[in-house]
Design a protein that fits this description.
single chain, alpha+beta, 4-stranded antiparallel β-sheet, 4-stranded mixed β-sheet, 2 helices, 8 strands, 16% helix, 43% strand
């Protein structure tokens, strides 16, 4: 019975979304930020961490342009971008627990080349927790 439900759901998806949309993203090609735990920082110490972005399941991810934005940084900290790497650094001036959201958008030479070269998504975001102590 469970297999029948899965088959019906699959057939419904194909009929509703079309065959190309369903099969294009079975193995998703989309930007991804690495999973990382931010170390605890201090208001008296310079803080630095790097995060890398990539396009999973895309061997040509070096050919894309990466655009970052960051929300939620404590005062005294900023971010800098070097191609696919974003660096969060600075000397924080406030204590607390901060939810830092990093957004990444990609654009590249393959975006308009046809259905086989399209990504499933061209942007993503991830939220990290940063703890700053005195």
């Amino acid at each position: 019975m469970k297999k029948l439900r899965i088959l019906l759901l699959f057939l419904f998806s194909i009929s509703f979304f079309g065959c190309d949309d369903v099969f294009d993203c079975i193995i998703p090609r989309e930007p991804e930020l690495e999973n990382k735990t931010f170390p605890i920082g201090s208001t008296e110490t310079y803080y630095y961490i790097d995060l890398k972005a990539e396009i999973n399941n895309e061997p040509r991810d070096q050919d894309y342009d990466y655009y970052f934005d960051v929300k939620g940084l404590p005062l005294g900290m900023d971010y800098f971008v070097n191609f696919r790497t974003i660096s969060i650094e600075g000397t924080p001036t406030e204590v607390g627990t901060f939810e830092i959201t990093i957004f990444v958008d990609v654009d590249g030479p393959f975006r308009d080349d046809g259905a086989d070269d399209r990504l499933c998504n061209y942007s993503t975001s991830k939220t990290y927790t940063l703890i700053i102590e005195e």
